[in-house]
Design goal:
16% strand, 402 residues, 2 domains, globular, single chain, alpha/beta
Length: 402
């Protein structure tokens, strides 16, 4: 089993909270992680009809069979009646780490938690493997990427994988654990997601339209969202666009990056940018059938940018931190791909898929320095090449150092 960075966070949380919730996309490894972390706990899958029926018909008796022992309830949103009974038990006994709830349907699960278990529950998100997890390395600290040292000769030898192979394969655990051809596995995954999860989350009567909507979103990766344009292309109204985007985001398929507009008086763009949280899934939806196609594909830059955003987002989630990620753009088209906020510190980041560094790549970062009036403000360029460097005090970071 590949070690997950979130395991240490779960173990720590279990010492403080009576209930832990572990959510994430389907097939991200939640069950495996829960069982590996809490080895002495009872494990009950509420996907099993016999367990689910008992939980629905006699919730008190179902929970009572475990007494004060630790229990993992997998796909807990399948039996929402349990939550109010769990609330009563933890209010009475308050045993740290007694219940571990997992679920793929973040929207339904967190809705029930907010109703019954607010303040009693630690919530954690498990996404597909990060690159550092696949390499067996320590997690990246997003707010400290400007301070990452150059890799030693020994570390360079340990770096594995070519950029386009990494982007095309994606990070879902079964692809790596079972060595399944990515396109074959992802085809089944997207079909299962649309036919099963979407129907259970919300009433999407026209699955063909929703499938087309997902493909249109893939084509807009890295772009500022225009709800009206997206709705017109899909044949749905703006209200439906918002609802379907919410489904994709709460299912951890996409990430909507909100704009950063603090402390500035200039006219700023306030619509979010759209990114996919798995580059392999994005490549599949875009019809990219082999890694070499990325070399000349029109979406190469957007796919790379999406991968960088997702890697940093995973780093936050898998270390139990609240993501503080934004982008910046004003009405004059001055733009920063990514703004990382850490307390009072701000780190601007540019993302370029090119394998060579061009001075044009730093224009946005230099503009940010002028805007903030901090001439030596730390800044980072992440690019598709192999060498690290410093340019006018700004860190140039190759993709494989994330």
């Amino acid at each position: 089993m590949i070690k997950r960075h979130l395991q240490a966070v779960l173990e720590k949380s279990a010492g403080f909270f009576p209930v832990l919730t572990l959510t994430g996309p389907r097939q991200s490894g939640k069950t495996t992680l829960a069982q590996a972390t809490f080895t002495k706990a009872h494990y009950i899958s509420l996907e099993d009809p016999s367990h689910r029926n008992l939980a629905l018909e006699d919730a008190r008796g179902f929970l009572g069979q475990f007494g004060t022992e630790q229990v993992v309830l997998d796909e807990a949103q399948r039996a929402p009646e349990l939550f109010s009974y769990i609330q009563g038990i933890v209010d009475e006994k308050d045993i740290p780490g007694q219940y571990i709830l997992t679920g793929s349907q973040n929207f339904l699960l967190l809705e029930k938690i907010s109703q019954s278990l607010a303040g009693r529950c630690a919530i954690h998100h498990l996404l597909p493997f990060s690159r550092s997890e696949l390499l067996g390395a320590n997690p990246t600290e997003p707010e400290k990427i400007a301070d990452i040292p150059r890799p030693s000769k020994k570390q360079k030898k340990q770096i594995s994988g070519k950029l386009f192979d990494v982007l095309w394969t994606g990070s879902y655990p079964r692809i790596h654990d079972k060595h399944i051809p990515p396109q074959q596995w992802l085809a089944n995954y997207i079909q299962t997601y649309i036919e099963r999860d979407v129907r259970s989350i919300v009433n999407v009567s026209d699955l063909e339209s929703f499938t087309r909507f997902v493909r249109l979103c893939a084509g807009r990766t890295g772009q500022i969202l225009n709800l009206q344009s997206l709705g017109n292309d899909c044949g749905i109204d703006s209200k439906t666009v918002k609802r379907w985007l919410s489904i994709l985001e709460t299912s951890f398929i996409i990430k909507l990056l909100r704009p950063y507009y603090k402390n500035f008086n200039k006219r700023l763009i306030k619509s979010p940018k759209l990114y996919f949280l798995d580059s392999g899934l994005l490549c599949y939806i875009l019809g990219i059938r082999k890694p070499d196609e990325l070399i000349v594909h029109s979406s190469r830059g957007a796919i790379f940018e999406s991968w960088v955003i997702s890697e940093l987002y995973k780093s936050y989630c898998h270390t139990g931190k609240q993501p503080a990620m934004y982008y910046f753009r004003d009405s004059n088209n001055n733009e920063i791909d990514l703004i990382l906020e850490h307390g009072s510190k701000i780190l601007p980041v540019e993302i370029k898929s090119s394998q060579t560094v061009n001075s044009e790549f730093f224009k946005g970062l230099e503009y940010w320095r002028k805007l903030t009036r901090i001439a030596d403000l730390p800044a980072v360029l992440i690019y598709g090449g192999d060498s690290s460097a410093i340019f006018k005090g700004m860190k140039v970071l190759p993709w494989h150092m994330l």
